[in-house]
Design brief:
Layout: E1 5-6, E2 15-18, E3 24-31, E4 37-41, H1 52-60, E5 64-68, H2 86-100, E6 104-109, H3 111-121, E7 129-133, H4 141-151, H5 161-171, E8 188-190, E9 196-198, H6 203-206, H7 211-223, E10 229-234, H8 242-251, E11 256-260, H9 267-270, H10 272-286
Parallel strand pairs: 4-5, 4-6, 6-7, 7-10, 10-11
Antiparallel strand pairs: 1-8, 2-3, 3-5, 8-9
Length: about 325
């Protein structure tokens, strides 16, 4: 399955890894390959390109930053079986970690944060540190509904890049509309009918989601955390409320917390300067360049958290 052909100027992936059952995962990397590894995971409906600015800054600071498109997103392959649950996302991450061959710090936004939290909270991945970006076990239904409303616009595709920009402006009215729309091309594909479509598998949007079950699983994972942990919330976020953030800090008392004023759910994109500063400062203490991680290595012993069965996460 495919969303269409690539638009001119769309950046090609610089790295590829093999996920579950041979599924190809595409990504980019920045910095010194011998530096501390930091894996950046994007939210649902996004791509690795959301991390470009953060990846470059991490790379310049001496880290080896890696961002990959989740299955069904960007330049990674779509799942033939249509499965996009947390279990398979965690296993994809585990495959990437094994191929990179080193312990990673995990930085995840929204869906990518849920994947990171489960990977560590169920002890699938021996991570050095965890950064959750505007995501926690408890999320606000209104915020989730707003994301899905945005993702559900024009399923047949947009007629122009101007229409795409209008849709983004409606979802993020506090962001300045770009004068040059060429930057949108990296997240779109052009169909044979001449329509612009987001480059993610539409089945990701329509799969069922049990938010009570998700809450129980992620809360159990949060209780299990023992590594350095940072929660970053967008001050204007409608997905992660102040109450949801406080609840996470009760579940994980040692976690640090940063509230980024002037940022919505897309924290890294809204206030990339403050976000990068907060993450670099945290990682410099938890996983210092040229030093040893605060959290010693251990042999993972995976177990399932929360109620039985898999969960499809929020975008």
């Amino acid at each position: 399955m495919s969303a269409g052909r690539r638009l001119p100027g769309t950046p090609e992936p610089t790295q590829y890894w093999t996920g579950v059952n041979g599924l190809k995962l595409a990504g980019d990397a920045w910095g010194n390959p011998q530096g501390p590894l930091v894996i950046l995971q994007h939210g649902g409906g996004q791509t690795r390109h959301a991390w470009k600015g953060a990846g470059e800054v991490l790379g310049n600071a001496g880290y080896h930053a890696v961002a990959f498109d989740a299955r069904g997103h960007g330049d990674s392959e779509w799942a033939a079986d249509g499965l996009y649950g947390q279990d398979v996302m965690v296993q994809d991450l585990k495959c990437v970690v094994e191929q990179l061959g080193r312990r990673p710090a995990l930085v995840g936004a929204s869906m990518g944060g849920g994947t990171s939290l489960v990977a560590v909270g169920e002890d699938h991945v021996d991570a050095t540190a965890l950064v959750l970006v505007d995501i926690a076990p408890r999320v606000e239904p209104e915020g989730v509904a707003k994301i899905f409303a945005f993702m559900s616009q024009r399923p047949e595709g947009f007629d122009s890049l101007e229409e795409v920009a209008d849709a983004i402006a409606g979802y993020q009215p506090y962001r300045k509309r770009p004068k040059n729309l060429d930057g949108l091309a990296k997240n779109l594909r052009l169909t044979a009918e001449g329509k612009y479509r987001w480059h993610w598998d539409p089945r990701f949007r329509t799969i069922g989601r049990d938010y009570t079950k998700r809450l129980e699983r992620l809360a159990d994972c949060a209780r299990n955390l023992t590594l350095p942990t940072l929660l970053v919330r967008g001050g204007m976020s409608d997905l992660l409320s102040e109450e949801g953030a406080k609840e996470f800090l009760v579940l994980c008392p040692h976690a640090e917390f940063v509230n980024v004023a002037g940022a919505g759910h897309m924290v890294a994109g809204d206030r990339n300067d403050i976000f990068r500063q907060a993450v670099i400062e945290f990682l410099s203490r938890a996983v210092p360049v040229g030093g040893q991680p605060v959290k010693p290595a251990h042999q993972p012993q995976p177990r399932h958290a929360g109620p039985p069965g898999d969960v499809n996460d929020v975008p």
